[in-house]
TrEMBL record:
<dbReference type="GO" id="GO:0006567">
    <property type="term" value="P:L-threonine catabolic process"/>
</dbReference>
<comment type="pathway">
    <text>Amino-acid degradation; L-threonine degradation via oxydo-reductase pathway; glycine from L-threonine: step 1/2.</text>
</comment>
<feature type="domain" description="NAD-dependent epimerase/dehydratase">
    <location>
        <begin position="92"/>
        <end position="291"/>
    </location>
</feature>
<dbReference type="InterPro" id="IPR001509">
    <property type="entry name" value="Epimerase_deHydtase"/>
</dbReference>
<comment type="function">
    <text>Catalyzes the NAD(+)-dependent oxidation of L-threonine to 2-amino-3-ketobutyrate, mediating L-threonine catabolism.</text>
</comment>
<dbReference type="InterPro" id="IPR036291">
    <property type="entry name" value="NAD(P)-bd_dom_sf"/>
</dbReference>
<dbReference type="GO" id="GO:0008743">
    <property type="term" value="F:L-threonine 3-dehydrogenase activity"/>
</dbReference>
<dbReference type="Pfam" id="PF01370">
    <property type="entry name" value="Epimerase"/>
</dbReference>
<dbReference type="InterPro" id="IPR051225">
    <property type="entry name" value="NAD(P)_epim/dehydratase"/>
</dbReference>
<protein>
    <recommendedName>
        <fullName>L-threonine 3-dehydrogenase, mitochondrial</fullName>
        <ecNumber>1.1.1.103</ecNumber>
    </recommendedName>
</protein>
<comment type="similarity">
    <text>Belongs to the NAD(P)-dependent epimerase/dehydratase family.</text>
</comment>
Length: 371
């Protein structure tokens, strides 16, 4: 599932007392429209204020044209304090959920105007092309995932924002230890998506150490959500199987039945994101963390689902491109640093995941299909 939609899908966890961020006067060479890309001066100083200096953050989230379900988040922070953005016209549910504005992450001036005009203090950057989609259009993925990130980093540094950029299991490669994969190890991904995410991790950490940017990053496993259709990721089979099971009672998987990958339910993902964003800076021993909940294979997921839907038929037609990607990714994440530093703890294991997904679709729908 696309990480750019994760933060905005189901904001079900009430937030704790939350920080605001500000900035002190900066010396920054800014790009005008006709100039070459700006450079941050060597003597620039960037600072984020403590949580107590403001009541709520003002949040800009990129890449959210399909986002929905911001009710609790907007209730907590105020409807006008969470701004969704994209270059595409939003769906009706997004448009009516709260502020939505046009933003192009490749247009530095546009981003800068949004941050200034809306007094943004947190920036959550989900715009990205995912693994399989990125391989089909490397040039576009490079532009969106890398050039766009550079704009985001410079905007966040210039204005003292707290910046969250998600990373992924795809940031690892075939030479990384796979079971488990620690936070710090060899990272040599084989996809443009993975390469761009390693780049994001390193650039964010560089800006943190060089300029004091409050950069925070989580490596997401495969994310499973009931209210979202798959969007081009290698782990999307774990979402598609539920849609197909409900609609047709049949599912064709594009990975081998024994392909083990780390996974997480959307509620756990959202809560982890909010928790790391709210964590006091002094508790963070690093700026990029693994997070994990469960690890399973397509066969294990199908067997768990068939306990409640025994009529479900599962077949396998392996996509060699997606299989090669999956075979280079971690089988299981070591997220002990997240659990030790900011008390991360997941709520959903495989049985709870399956039950929750089926509850979302409703027992009446299943009964109508199979009776």
């Amino acid at each position: 599932m696309p990480v750019m939609r994760i933060f905005s899908k189901v904001a079900k966890q009430a937030l704790l007392s939350t920080p605001g961020c500000g900035c002190q006067p900066l010396t920054v060479a800014v790009r005008n429209i006709s100039f070459s890309p700006r450079q941050v001066t060597s003597d620039a100083s960037f600072h984020s204020v403590s949580f107590s200096e403001t009541d709520h953050p003002k949040v800009l989230i990129t890449g959210t044209y399909e986002a929905s379900g911001f009710g609790l988040l907007q209730k907590r922070y105020g409807k006008n304090n969470v701004i969704l953005s994209d270059i595409r016209k939003p769906q009706n549910s997004v448009f009516h959920s709260g502020p939505f504005i046009y933003s192009d992450i490749l247009d530095y001036k546009n981003l800068r105007e949004i941050v200034v005009n809306n007094r943004i203090t947190w920036l959550v950057h989900y715009s990205a092309l995912l693994s399989a989609v990125g391989e089909a259009n490397v040039a576009l993925a490079r532009s969106v995932n890398i050039t766009g990130l550079h704009n985001i980093l410079d905007i966040a540094a210039e204005h003292g924002l707290r910046l969250f950029v998600p990373s992924t299991i795809g940031a690892f490669g075939p030479t990384s230890p796979r079971n488990p994969t620690p936070d710090l190890c060899v990272q040599r991904p084989r996809t443009i998506y993975g390469v761009s995410k390693v780049h994001a991790e390193l650039m964010g950490e560089y800006y943190h150490h060089r300029y004091g940017l409050d950069f925070r990053c989580l490596r997401y496993p495969g994310i499973i959500s009931a209210d979202s259709m798959p969007g081009g990721g290698t782990t999307d089979y774990a979402v598609q199987i539920f849609h197909d099971a409900i609609k047709t009672g049949k599912f064709e998987c594009n990975l081998r039945p024994d392909t083990r990958l780390p996974m997480m339910y959307i509620d756990d993902c959202l809560r982890a994101t909010l928790e790391v964003m709210e964590a006091p800076a002094e508790t963070l021993s690093m700026r990029t963390y693994n997070i994990n909940a469960m690890s399973f294979t397509p066969e294990e997921l199908a067997q768990e689902l068939q306990k409640q839907m025994p009529e479900l038929e599962v077949t396998y037609e392996v996509d060699p491109v997606r299989q090669a990607i999956a075979d280079s990714w971690p089988m299981n994440f070591d997220d002990s640093n997240a659990r030790n530093d900011w008390a991360w703890k997941h709520d959903y294991d495989l049985p709870e995941l399956v039950q929750t997904m089926l509850n979302f679709f409703g027992s009446e729908t299943r009964m109508a299909r199979f009776n």
